[in-house]
Specification:
The complex is a heterodimer of chains A (785) and B (197). By secondary structure, chain A is of the alpha+beta class. In chain A, 54% of the residues lie in helices and 9% in strands. Chain B has helices at 61-76, 113-131, 136-141, 143-153, 164-193; strands spanning 12-13, 38-45, 50-55, 85-88, 91-98, 101-107, 154-155, 158-159. In chain B, strand 7 and strand 8 (158-159) form a beta hairpin. The chains are: A alpha+beta (785), B alpha+beta (197).
């Protein structure tokens, strides 16, 4: 039998193959040769054959028949055999196959071998792929080696111990004694791996964490030496001494300092030193700074240090290296909640990152920008974000559009601005907005009574330009249907009214019906809009004709609508004006959060914000908005708001009511909210005859020197409850406790669950708008039992 | 959902504005899963041919192949101006191209990407010192040596030795051991090879 070809020879041969098929043929031939060689139990060439097998395995060919051969190599006495054998084991074996357990005894022997390089091989293999069973069996050996004075072995044993602990956490205790003087080592390899081991132990066990806290001073000293020591060629990387060790120490300090004042204080100085002295021209320095920032943010650092950290991140943002910018944005995103103001200072830099070429950076900058939007910067930020929306990749448009809507709803400075912003989004990214934005927008428009003429005019103009973006078209048709009369009469105040005739409007709507670009949903909107115009326009005959045409449409939805509208014209004409009347102000109808809110009075601007995932709605949303569907048995009841407060605010006397209701029901009153001079008390009584209903009267009083005007109280309760809010006595809470605003809440609690409530208060105080959310959890048990 | 209550009540959800943030600096519970770990390192050519694969997590061959295929595709699709980090599944991928080879590491959420770049760079330096101006062919023809060097530098995904000199010294010594063993054998095998046994 000729000697099997050498490894390099094989590699050369295989690389000459010009096609996949040729390569496969070569491989198969060689595999066959190797297999017969294995069968012959040839010790001499086993190593060479396994090496070749590993090469073929890397190319993607099966090599499992070599597994046992690897074990034989490991058991061999020759170092070359062991080297390849262990490599093969790491590549071909894995812990799911029982055959790997056969390694255990060999590894055990090799861990006690006289040659440290053999011991090293064993430690490496165990630390890389040891299964839990192997780790259990061999942990004792590893622990022994952890105490050796041979630093080559000690460092490997430390990382092997880390792996053992990860696999079998219960074994952690047995390594504790060996850690006693790990940090007194001078050898950097041992130091580094020891710090990794200590980190692992501290992360896994609070007891270990407490135990190792005493190492903080020693770690600080080691770090200090690294920074202050002169040039050490062995560990130098671009002028920094052993950055890997520095980073690991910083990480361990982070874990030890978290939540602990003393430790945090002990490391304060060194962190400041590292933060200010580290060279930032190369990546390695920035890597250390990054770790330092992460540590500062996580421990109980003093505010000066935190500001320093955020400023470092701010500088990172200006770095030419995009990796650094990316890392900065990621960190800022994590810290924007806790250190909001500090991050705000870097807002303009962050917004500039929206123009970056890198996708990951753009995404992070977008998320961070939305997190930074507030009432003060909304106009400027929105300009940037809308510009970004215009020019960004399609993968961003949906998220950006949602973010813009959310931000606009939360912070819109004026109704007109809000509508303009939404229009901008619809016209630039109209096909990417989420489906629920259409009903949300419709609701918003309905409720902005004074903007109807302006809105419908702008939407009409947008339709003339482009009918391809469905959400825009749907909203526009709905509005034209509702406010077509305003459009035609040219009543717009906000901008130059356009001259448009009824026929032109109907042309546009009919155009939507026939266009190929319109989806069936859009066509439904258009048809209904045309129908609504029959009560607003004079050219009823034209409308009748259109409706009757669609009575025979192939689209079942359209057909049904047309037939019903036809019926309306023919048999129920007397009802038509009432049915197609202007829609009243409506409330949003989504409930995907854990609580449900009830609106108070109609004058309050609904400050609802759409959640990210719309709830499953049983019917198509346009039907919800269509009054006609009352005939169809829709379960939405249009909301008729009580707009005017019924009782005038009484001065002085209300105070007594706080005490008056005290023992009517035997339920003690409570203070639900007391902040910034606004105090809200709840008093209780049971409603007869239904004992499941609790009647709560809120009393709002104001101890500051200025009135709180436009006061609106809103409440939300968990799903199992139902809430009814009656009208408030007034919406001005007079100053200096001169009077209270009262409002009655009725809570239906059929399941007798513990009452919880979230309240939202909005009012104007000394010229500025104030808004607050609070959770009310201190309801007396009698109120819900 | 719609709730039909007696008069004028409709249900609305409570506002929830905050964009989902990835992790935060708020204190974690102590028993959270440790998230500093390199899961694997791959080396591949610009044509997508695998030159080295080191896995520090137990996965089946099939899973490894799938991950490799997808990741290689993703990284090769990146444009040169993009940054070295990308999110892929629930891992962070740090990659850097050196000549015709891509060095690609998968690290976990809390790991420091910048220091991972340094780790990759250190490994390249080690290869360079060992092979003397290393190129892809060196790694192709001496793949087992590339593994040996990696295994002297990293263990279980962590750096075991931060001194370049010490890593290279260890490799040198181990190579010598191999040579000694071979020399002891040589007389026999030469005779065999010329057929004079």
């Amino acid at each position: 039998m000729p000697a099997p070809i050498r490894l390099r020879e094989l590699i050369r041969t295989i690389r000459t193959a010009r096609t996949q098929a040729e390569e496969r043929e070569m491989i198969q031939k060689e595999c066959a040769a190797i297999r017969s060689s294995f069968r012959e139990e040839d010790n001499t060439y086993r190593c060479r054959n396994v090496a070749k097998l590993l090469y073929m395995h890397m190319l993607g060919y099966p090599a499992h028949f070599g597994q046992l051969e690897c074990l034989k190599l490991i058991a061999s006495q020759k170092f070359t055999d062991k080297r390849i054998g262990y490599l093969g084991a790491m590549l071909l074996l894995d812990e799911r196959q029982d055959v790997h357990l056969l390694m255990t005894n060999c590894i055990k022997n090799d861990l006690n071998h006289s040659t440290q390089y053999v011991q090293g091989l064993a430690l490496c293999t165990l630390g890389c792929m040891g299964s839990s069973e192997m780790c259990r069996d061999l942990a004792g050996e590893v622990e022994k080696l952890l105490k050796t004075s041979n630093s080559y072995l000690r460092k490997k044993a430390a990382l092997c111990a880390v792996h053992v602990i990860r696999k079998v956490p219960e074994l952690m205790e047995m390594f504790l004694p060996a850690t006693k003087n790990l940090l007194s080592e001078k050898n950097h390899g041992v130091l580094h791996t020891s710090v990794v081991l200590l980190t692992e132990m501290c992360e896994r066990s609070p007891d270990m964490l407490a135990h190792f806290r005493k190492l903080v001073p020693q770690l600080v000293r080691i770090l200090k030496n690294l920074i202050m020591s002169g040039y050490s060629p062995e560990h130098d990387v671009s002028g920094i001494s052993d950055p890997f060790l520095q980073v690991r120490i910083l990480r361990l300090l982070r874990i030890l300092g978290k939540g602990d004042d003393d430790s945090s204080e002990a490391m304060n100085d060194i962190l400041a030193q590292v933060a200010t002295n580290t060279e930032t021209s190369k990546n390695v320095g920035n890597a250390i700074l990054y770790e330092t920032v992460l540590t500062i943010m996580d421990i109980k650092s003093e505010s000066g240090l935190r500001v320093l950290a955020i400023n470092i991140l701010g500088r990172f943002l200006l770095n030419n290296d995009k990796n650094i910018r990316y890392v900065a944005l990621t960190s800022l995103l994590k810290t924007v909640q806790t250190d909001h103001n500090a991050v705000q200072r870097h807002r303009s830099t962050i917004v500039d990152c929206l123009k970056d070429l890198d996708v990951s950076i753009k995404r992070r900058a977008m998320e961070l920008s939305f997190a930074l939007v507030n009432g003060n910067n909304i106009r400027g930020m929105m300009k940037e974000l809308l510009y970004f929306l215009d020019s960004c990749d399609p993968e961003f448009k949906a998220d950006c559009a949602s973010g813009v809507f959310l931000a606009a709803e939360k912070y819109a400075p004026s109704k007109r601005w809000h509508i303009d912003t939404i229009m901008r989004v619809l016209t630039t990214a109209g096909s990417y907005v989420r489906d629920d934005s259409v009903p949300n927008l419709i609701q918003l428009i309905t409720n902005s009574v004074e903007m109807h003429a302006y809105t419908v005019q702008r939407l009409y103009k947008a339709l003339l330009d482009d009918i391809s973006q469905q959400p825009l078209v749907q909203v526009a048709s709905w509005c034209i249907g509702e406010y077509g009369d305003l459009l035609v009469s040219g009543q717009c105040e906000e901008e130059e009214p356009i001259q448009v005739t009824e026929d032109e409007v109907l042309d546009v709507l009919e155009g939507l019906l026939v266009s190929n670009l319109s989806t069936p949903v859009t066509r439904g909107y258009a048809l209904t809009a045309i129908m609504k115009l029959s009560t607003r326009f004079t050219s009823v005959n034209r409308i009748k004709k259109v409706v009757s045409i669609y009575g025979s449409s192939i689209d079942v939805e359209l057909q049904q609508r047309a037939v019903e509208y036809n019926a309306l014209f023919k048999k129920y004409d007397h009802m038509r004006p009432a049915l197609l009347e202007r829609m009243p102000i409506m409330e949003k109808t989504a409930s995907n959060g854990p609580t449900e809110i009830v609106q108070t009075n109609g004058e309050a601007e609904p400050s609802v914000v759409e959640a990210k995932h719309p709830p499953p709605v049983t019917q198509p949303t346009n039907q919800a908005n269509d009054l006609l569907d009352l005939l169809g048995g829709n379960d939405v009841v249009p909301v008729i708001q009580t707009t005017v407060p019924t009782k005038p605010a009484s001065a002085g006397g209300e105070l007594l009511d706080l005490l008056g209701d005290l023992s009517l029901s035997g339920i003690p009153p409570m203070t639900a909210y007391n902040k910034n001079g606004l105090k809200i008390d709840f008093t209780f009584e049971r409603a007869n005859p239904n004992p499941n209903i609790a009647v709560i009267t809120i009393h709002a009083s104001n101890s500051t020197e200025a009135d709180m005007t436009d006061f609106v109280f809103q409440a939300a309760v968990p799903k199992t409850f139902q809430l009814q809010l009656l009208s408030p006595s007034s919406n001005v809470v007079p100053t200096l406790n001169q009077g209270t605003v009262t409002q009655v809440i009725r809570v239906l609690n059929p399941q007798k669950q513990q009452l919880r409530m979230r309240i939202k208060l909005t009012y104007t105080h000394k010229g500025s708008a104030v808004q607050d959310l609070a959770e009310v959890n201190n309801f007396p048990p009698q109120s819900w039992q | 959902m719609f709730a039909l209550v007696a008069n004028q009540k409709v249900v609305i959800d409570w506002p929830c504005f905050w964009v989902v943030l990835g992790g935060s600096f708020l204190p974690r519970g102590v028993y959270t899963v440790l998230l500093f770990k390199m899961q694997f390192m791959l080396l591949f050519s610009r044509q997508g041919k695998l030159r080295l694969q080191k896995w520090y997590v137990p996965l089946s061959d099939k899973e490894k192949k799938k991950i490799t295929r997808e990741l290689v595709q993703t990284v090769l699709a990146r444009k040169p101006k993009m940054c070295s980090f990308l999110e892929w599944r629930d891992l962070k991928i740090v990659y850097k191209r050196y000549a015709s080879l891509y060095f690609c590491c998968a690290i976990e959420d809390q790991d420091n990407e910048l220091i991972t770049l340094e780790i990759i760079h250190r490994y390249v330096e080690l290869l360079d010192k060992y092979f003397g101006s290393v190129c892809e062919l060196d790694i192709i023809f001496n793949f087992e040596k590339a593994y040996f060097i990696l295994d002297e530098f990293l263990l279980g995904g962590e750096a075991q030795e931060t001194s370049k000199k010490n890593v290279l010294k260890a490799i040198e010594q181990a190579d010598l051991l191999q040579e000694d063993a071979k020399e002891a054998e040589t007389p026999r095998s030469v005779l065999e090879e010329i057929g004079l046994t």
